[in-house]
Known about the structure:
Largest sheet: 4 strands, antiparallel
Number of helices: 3
Amino acid sequence: MSYRRISGFATALLAALALSATPALAQGKGKNDKKPAADHSGVSVELALSATKDVLVKQGFEVVRVESQGDKQIVYYRAGNQGKGKGKGPPVRMVIERVNDRIVLQDAPDELRIEIGVKLGIKL
């Protein structure tokens, strides 16, 4: 076999591989593509409430009570006893509601909001 024949075959093979890979890249199916944003419509207020309670307890807070006002859930929580002789913290309020098919947390610190969003698999 001559060098030209091998060179021509290699060129043809590379061209075929390049053409076969082009449709996937053109469709946006590259290796490092990000997933689409999470859909909030599958998350109910009750599921968000459950995730909120789990995150609060995990972060060392105590859930005092939960009130329901229409489609809103109001969670009252406070800092647990840290063992420093200062007792428990004052009650703090957080509101969970659905607005335009999205779960909204009002009066929630950013750290808690991020952690709850991660637990639910959505961006809050």
